[in-house]
Amino acid sequence: MLENATKPKRSSRSKRVEEGQIEKVPITLKVNGTTRSVAVEPRTLLVELIRENLDLTGTHVGCDTTYCGACTVLMNGAAVKSCTVFAVQADGAELLTVEGLEKDGKLHPIQKAFGECYGLQCGYCTPGFMMSAYQLLSENSQPNEKEIRKAIAGNTCRCTGYQNIFKAIQAAAEGAKGT
Amino acid sequence: MLSQLGDDAKLLAGGQSLIPLMKLRFANPKYLVDLNFVPGASYIKESKGSLCVGALTRHAELEHSAVSAKIPIIHDCAAGIADVQVRNRGTIGGSVAEADPSGDWAVVLSTLSTTISCVGKNGKREIPLDQFIADAYTTALEHDEIVSEVRVKLPAKHSGGAYLAFKRAAPVYPTASAAVQLTMEGDICKDASIALGCVGLVPIRPRDAEAALRGQPLNPSTLARASEAAERAADPQPDMRGSAEYKRKLVGSLLKRAIEIAARRARGEQVVAGHIYA
Q: Which of 3.10.330.10, 3.90.1200.10, 3.10.20.30, 1.10.287.80 is the CATH number of A18-100?
C-alpha cells in the first residue's frame, strides 16, 4: 500500500515527512549476486533505490516517463524500466544492473563489443542498451537483424544513432559463438 | 480490502500506465494495492473451447506462449505492445481494466468472443467485453472489484485473424489500429468481425464494414467497400499523432491490409504481422 504525498494542501503525510516519521518498508533483494536489505519509502522507485540507496549509479534516469530505457535493469531475468517499478515491488527479487556485467575485473562480451564497435557516444543511454542486449542474448544467442532491432526498440539514443549499437550487439553474439 | 479503503484506493497491476500517470499527477490515489504478489493470478490455459488468461499474465508471457502461436492475432498484439521492458511488466488484465482508448488488447479482444471475469466482495461476475468497457478509461468494474480472468472463445476452423497497429516508435501508443477475424468457406467470407482502435473513445465496431465482407468473395472491390465503411465509422480526434482525417484514412488502409493477412491465415498460411513503425 502506498500513500501519496502530492495533495496540494498540507496532508497528514507531508506533516509526517517533515517530522521525519515516514514509515519505511524493509525489503531484501539480491543485487548483482549480493543480498542487500534496505528500508525504503513506499513511493520510492526502483531506480531511486538502485542509485541512491545502493549507490549503483551506472543505471541512469533519462526521461522518467517509461520511454527512453536508460534505467533498464534485469529483475528476475526480465528487462524492466526501473523508473516504472516501485522499489517495494522488488522485495525478494534478483536484480542485475550494468555493474554486475563485469566479472573479476573482466568486461562482459557485451561491454567489450560496445567499446570496440563504438556503440556509444556520450554514454548516457549505454547501460540501458547493454541490459536490453543482455536479456536478448540470454534468451537467443544468435539473434537475427529483426530480433536485435526489436530487442532494443525500448531504448533511445540521442547522439550516435543506432547502427553501431546494432553492430555491437551483433558482435557480442558472434563473439559468444566461439566460447 | 478495497471496500475498506474506498474510492481512494487504486489497484496496481503491471504499473506501466498507472505509475507514469501518477508521476504526471493525472492519477493521485491515496492507497495502492499491489496485485503482483497475488499467487495464481497469472496463467494461460484452454478449457471447454475457450482460452483462459489470468488477469496478471504479462504481455511477454502471451507473446511467447503456445497459444499465441495457435491464434496469430493474440501474438500480433502481445508481441507489439510498447517495448520488451513494458511487455515484461504490463498485464492483459491491467490493459482491459484501464480501458485506454489507445490500448491494444481491447481492440483485438473485441473481434473475438471475449468475457471478462470480475471478482468482488459480492462474488463473481462474467461481463462480455463490449459491456465491460463503458467509455474511455471507464469500465463496468465496481471500486471493490477486480478483473480475475480474460476468457476468449477459440476461433472456429477456417478462420484467421490479424491485428495491425501503426506507431511512430515502439514505446508510444499506436496512431490507429485495426483488428479483424474472418471465417472463410472456400473463397467466400462466411463471417467477419472487425474492431478499430485509437479512432474513438472505445474500440469502434464498424458493422457496415463487416456486412460488406459477409457472404462475399474477398476481392479488391469488397475490400474497398469494407475499408470505406470503416473510415465512415471511425470517429478520431486530432492530436499530436495526427489529424482526424489522417487517422481516418490510416485506419481504412490498415483494415484492408489486415483483411488480406487474416484471409491468408484462414487458409493456413503463416504470415508475420503486428505493429508497424513509421
A: 3.10.20.30
For domain B159-277, the question of CATH label 3.90.1150.10 is answered with: no
Own/partner contacts of A118-124, CB < 8 Å, gap of 24 or more, are A118/A160, A118/A164, A119/A160, A119/A164, A119/A165, A119/A167, A119/A168, A119/A169, A120/A160, A120/A164, A120/A165, A121/A159, A121/A160, A122/A159, A124/A60, A124/A62, A124/A70, A124/A158
Higher pLDDT, A51 or A9: A51
Delimiting residues of CATH 1.10.150.120 domain(s) in chain A: 109-178
- Please name the residues in contact with A30: beta carbons below 8 A apart, sequence gap of 6 or more: A36, A93, A94, A95
Query: For B40-153, which CATH class?
Result: alpha beta
CA distance A106 to chain B (A): 27
Grid cell listed for B149? 480472468
User: Does ipTM top 0.90?
Assistant: yes
Q: What are the beta bridge partners of residue B54?
A: B149
Inform me whether the pLDDT recorded for A3 exceeds 50. Answer: no
Q: Does A2 touch chain B (CB under 8 A)?
A: yes
User: pLDDT tens across B204-248, in order?
Assistant: 999 999 999 999 999 999 999 999 999 999 999 999 999 999 999
* Residue A63 confidence class, pLDDT cut points 50, 70, 90: very high
Q: What is the CATH number of domain A109-178?
A: 1.10.150.120
**Interface of chain B against chain A, CB under 8 Å?**
12, 15-16, 19-20, 22-25, 28-34, 36, 60, 82-86, 88-89, 169-172
**Where along chain A do the CATH 3.10.20.30 domains lie?**
18-100
pLDDT of residue A160: 76
Q: Min CA distance, B90 vs chain A (Å)?
A: 10
Domain ranges of chain B: 40-153, 159-277
pLDDT of residue B70: 86
pLDDT-derived band at A17, boundaries 50, 70, 90: low
pLDDT score of A134 more than 90 = yes
Cβ–Cβ gap B85/A69 under 8 Å: yes
